[in-house]
Design goal:
By secondary structure, the chain is an alpha/beta fold. The protein is built from 11 helices and 15 strands.
Length: about 300
Amino acid sequence: MHLLITGGTGFIGSALIQSLLSEGNRVTIFSRQTLVDTATCEYVQSLERIAENTHFDAVVNLAGESLANKRWSKAYKQKIVASRLTTTATLIALLNRLPHKPEVLLNASAVGYYGHQGEVELSEDAEVVPGFAQDLCQRWETLACGAQDCGIRVCRLRFGVVLDRKGGAMDQMGAPFRLGIANWLGQGTQWLSWVHRQDVIRAIQFLLERHELSGAFNITAPQPVTSRGFCEVMKRHQRTFITVPIPAFALRLLVGEMAVELLLNGQCVVPTALHRAGFTFLFPELDTALEDILK
């Protein structure tokens, strides 16, 4: 297959491309960076410049500025929004002008789509609670669904917190534990809907190959944990000497609004649609996932 990937140099995208290339596929990667093409991997810096006679079998849209990189100033929030919505709108314009349409668009989203709902278990058809992340995800998904007007199958990937070694959330979440300090955030009762990066890549490839599947898919492990639960499992895999929870007020002082949206609230999300489709997880439990990541 020939795939167009946006966000291909990120934590998920880089692993996805490595897997796709290992299976003999060809990829075109949209990236603002200046990178060197290979026989099976081409980089483009502008979606508008892709020739109309280009034939893509599938598109995976992962582009988006990280929500957790820095404190949310007004300017950075605008950057978060633009990096997703502008890129997706440009991508839909490309798909509209290509005479030969790809079969499928897999578009990234996040479990933030559901908003803050406390203890409620959330499948793909759950109601939503408004908020910044919820509004962003909903607008992002709505834009992506414009590809359906071209006859393109659309899958919306609502990612949880993706865990693996060498990058991603584990760099920050695991840092205190590496120093021997166990911790959780705030009261520790907020839910963490996590997923191993290997299962993310497997789920993406599963949805690429299953031509009858479309709609929203929670890309999360079947067993979410609380912040305290994550701490307890980490302590089984990292030697710690003290437990020092991080108070909510300290997080608010350090990172402001982002603390409320991402750290002190969470969602208890389950992958109902993937299960119904027959997908199985390599790492359904956090204990086995961390054993693989931290070994």
